[in-house]
Amino acid sequence: MTHEFTARLPVTEPFDGAGVLAWMEPRALPGVEEVDADSFSRTVRLPHGPAWFRVRIDSGRGPELTAHLTDPADEALLLSLVRRLFDLDTDPREIDGALAAEPVLAPLVAEVPGIRVPGAADPHEMLVRAMVGQQISVAAARTHLTRLAEALGERVEIAGTTRLLFPTAEALAADGHTVLRGPTRRVAAIIGAAEALAEGSLVLGPEDDPFAQRRALMELPGIGAWTADYVRMRVAHDPDVLLPGDLVLRQGAEHAGAPAAPKDLATWAERLAPWRSYASAHFWRHALRARRMR
Fold it and tell me: DSSP secondary-structure letter at 4?
């Protein structure tokens, strides 16, 4: 028997909930996550057992959360997790005002007010997803991660359906080599990171100091600046991260009128501090819109 509850989640408008769903849709792993036109749902591990939740975006009324928990003691933790995942505690008015003062970003902010930077449902999972996804397309990463989840994830009965939990670090450390594909060094790096998480020599969480987290990640073999900074953006929720090595981000920046070369973009974007994560979100979104218009 599970504990069920529904809650309306307060959020400061404007809130680009549709944009969060658009970000999640191509990355959703079958069995673990589902995305449709107005909602996102997934399974998560909580201290007292697995849970499943759905967030429905209701324009003008705030997101609505429906959850099934193993134990009601996890309710507050799940609420906090969902708020981070949808970046609900951000005040977009300050961010939009600051970014709109830059002529390159002004039209992007006008088109997408209240943009959000999605958080992470599970920090360990986010690191694995980032490492698998580095230097390959979103679609290719989804294929690899789906295979990983199906092979090593845990199946649970919750909310009336058999659902899938993303593999634990322990499962990945023990058996990831049987499922992971790709260059030997990359596979070894992912297994090494899973081992570090499993044994506790690497600790990741939303309360981490962002720069200490970055240093700890980059001490691991096979983790470079892109992965460490992407995790810092998503897990530690650092609002001031730019990924100048990201090809899609650079394409969006160039199309908007900013420099495209990594070093030039990084220098130019210094004027956007302390909101470079949100500028990055605008550039990613702009790149995808530009592709659809071709």
Answer: E
Q: Work out the number of other CB atoms within 10 angstroms of the CB of residue 145.
A: 20
List for the chain the helix, strand, coil content (%; round to 5): 50, 15, 35
Q: Residue 236: what are its φ and ψ, rounded to 5°?
A: -80, -10
10 within 8 A of 24, measured Cβ to Cβ: no
CA distance 71 to 228: 34
Closest CA to 58 of 121, 113, 10: 10
The span from the CA of 168 to the CA of 283, in Å, is: 33
Q: Which of helix, strand or coil describes residue 33?
A: strand
Contacts with 116 (C-beta within 8 Å, 6 or more apart), sequence order: 15, 16, 17, 19, 20, 86, 87, 90, 92, 281
Taking the CA atoms of the chain, what radius of gyration do you get in angstroms? Answer: 19
CB-based contacts of 148, cutoff 8 Å, min separation 6: 128, 132, 167, 172, 176, 179, 180
DSSP-H helix ranges across the chain: 17-24, 75-85, 92-100, 106-111, 123-133, 138-152, 169-175, 184-199, 210-218, 225-234, 247-256, 262-268, 276-293
CB 21 within 8 A of CB 57: yes
**pLDDT by residue for the chain (294 residues), tens digit each?**
689 999 999 999 999 999 999 999 999 999 999 999 999 999 999 999 999 999 999 877 889 999 999 999 999 999 999 999 999 999 999 999 999 999 999 999 999 999 999 999 999 999 999 999 988 999 999 999 999 999 999 999 998 999 999 999 999 999 999 999 999 999 999 999 999 999 999 999 999 999 999 999 999 999 999 999 999 999 999 999 999 999 999 999 999 999 999 999 999 999 999 999 999 999 999 998 876 655
